[in-house]
Amino acid sequence: MAEAHQAVAFQFTVSPEGVDLRLSHAALKQVYLAGLRSWKKKITRLRNSLVTGMFPASPASWLVMAAAILASQASRLDPSMGLIGKITDAYLSEPARAGLGALAFATLLWLGLVVTMRGALRALLCYHGWMGEEHGRPSHATKCWLALVKIFAGRRPMLYSYQASLPRLPVPPIRDTVQRYLESMRPLLSDSHFQHTAALGRDFEHSLGPRLQWYLTLKSWWATNYVSDWWEEYVYLRGRGPLMVNSNYYAMDFLYVTPTPLQAARAGNVVHALLLYRRLLNREGLVPGVLPGVGTAKGRPPRLAPTSRSPPDSLQHRQDSRHIAVFHAGRFFRVGLYHGGQLLGPRELQAQFQRILDDPVPPAPGEETLAALTAGPREPWARARQTYFGSGRNQESLRAVERAAFFLTLDTTEQGLLGPEPGRALDRYAKALLHGQCHDRWFDKSFTLIVFRNGKIGLNAEHSWADAPIMGHLWEYTLATDVFQLGYGVDGHCKGELDPSIPPPQKLQWEIPEECRQVIQGSLRAAQALADDVDFHTFAFKDFGKGLIKKCRTSPDSFIQLALQLAHFRDKGKFCLTYEAAMTRLFREGRTETVRSCSIESCNFVRAMTDSAAQRLALFRVAAAKHQTLYRRAMMGAGIDRHLFCLYVVSKYLGVDSPFLREVLSEPWGLSTSQTPIQQLELFDLKNHPDYISCGGGFGPVDNNGYGVSYIIIGEDLITFHVSCKFSSTETDAHRFGANIRTALLDLRALFNLPLK
Prior knowledge:
It contains 25 helices and 20 strands. 43% of the residues are buried. Helix 20 packs across helix 25 (734-751). It has an eight-stranded mixed sheet with strand order 13-7-6-10-11-12-3-18, sandwiched between helices. A six-stranded mixed sheet has the order 14-20-19-17-15-16. Strands 1-2 form a two-stranded antiparallel ribbon. The chain folds into five domains: 2-44, no CATH class; 55-165, no CATH class; 169-223 and 639-666, Choline/Carnitine o-acyltransferase (Fumarase C, Chain B, domain 1), CATH 1.10.275.20; 243-282 and 315-532, Choline/Carnitine o-acyltransferase, domain 2 (Chloramphenicol Acetyltransferase, 2-Layer Sandwich); 537-636 and 668-757, Chloramphenicol Acetyltransferase (2-Layer Sandwich), CATH 3.30.559. By secondary structure, the protein is α+β, with helices and mostly antiparallel strands.
């Protein structure tokens, strides 16, 4: 095998004439370059850690301070008021004691300033008053706050520079959480049911609640974030149901443009762009997220380490990976990413992928549907992994998949706006990204990049390791780099030179016994039943967008959320518990919090719309203001659901039962919503390239009788929706709900008497 020959650095034979030693200089050179690259990365990580550790100060500031102290000593001035003399007398010997004492004092003073600046910045970042102010009209308090933040925030921050300065997520008071919970449930419950729930809440607030709160407060003092580790463990990793549809989410390609129809070429450019993003992360070259008007970080930064779930579920993070795993036509391949110490270019990657596409070798028995183990329930996969993949070829091949930078599927189908019904084609495209054929994505990997036969691409991401905004950041960079930086030749091929000496892809070898194949088929049947039950509708709303909504002097997100409430009431004739994801990235290791978008105020507005009441516009403004208040509370760490969730976890650790918490966590989310934010507007010039817009992404329904809705606000005139539900439910229909969303948006616009474009 070619890959085996490449791995041999030397050979020797023993003969009557002696030992014949033959060294492979090419292989030894590769060994040397690999070691050199590894040490360069270690040095870069060490340097970044040192710079980040002393931020908002810098090594240059220490040199300036040391020089100033030494200069004052030479001028017979003592800025330390005698402290330098005490340091030299107590700890330093006679030679050069004065200079060393001055350096020691300068270092101590510098460290004190670093700690003071970091503490001051952390205290400043606890201020959230700017969130309630009108955009572009900050109060005097906010202006002063911005000025102080700019003073203490330092210059030229690296990606992780502000992590130690972010405040910890606060634990809300029990009373506030219970009161806000009851307020959110009032429009959804009958009078008798609400009285029962309120009695449970008051009893919890005065009996068991304070005891659970004490433990939670203790954790918040000790842990970096009192929610994130339990949320990752119990919401994501402890679940035994399939990840596919239930947890993983997807991202789409450009809506109207496919830069090249060549599958291997598109894969080459996109893989190279992803690796460039990874290099930026490793070097901390990305600019941290910012607060309005000031360059400070806001929360959990992106990460792109090789990550995979390993059943029984735990997350396996690795520092680096020199290869990716590729799936095509039922076969698995290992593709190296480096040659001669250099990252493979797009043209070289294209050649590697073309070799896989042209490879006629059939899959081994059981190999074609092997990935269905990651699509089905977790327990059969955990048992099969331990029984059949613990040694030999299967273990080696599984390691190659799990330790890959990411997983790439060269899909055999075509997707996009194809055929006489482009709307239906977009629905098929969404389902192809969400679940595919249930055996052609490795759902345990951090993400699977999917390149279809006609050059269309997409992404399927595992949820436990990163939320959608993190993957959205990566995806925006990848799409922009693919088209506007790397580009393609006039023939559709990747640009660049081709090195013919690069070793070919390595086909992974599997020996799957009949018993394991039966387990695989069981997982495939369960996954296929789940996938077939998903009803999806993806559509672009083009009548108006953010530009017109801003003329209504309201938040675009509040506008859309109220439209969703109106659409849902018209669709089902009732209100439901509504989940809207909000980010808590203002806090260290923050992830998400829930905005309960169905409020008393939103219900009053919806009833007014259906009853033709005269106060529609006034009720709309009240409901929109309420939604913004709820959203701000969630972002500021004063949400309801993460606090109640953590209280429930504490109760389980203590072995006590709470009827109130049990009822809270058993309520179904009939409408689960999420906005996909566009975070890097500087990458896309939508005015000059209006066709280069992404359709965003989506997820499966959370409740068997409910809807999942993802939306993305693109530019000034477009909003794209992804609606999911289940065919098996008699209460839902994705296309019917999509039609209700369109009508609701137009009805809200009519409230303001604004003309369509």
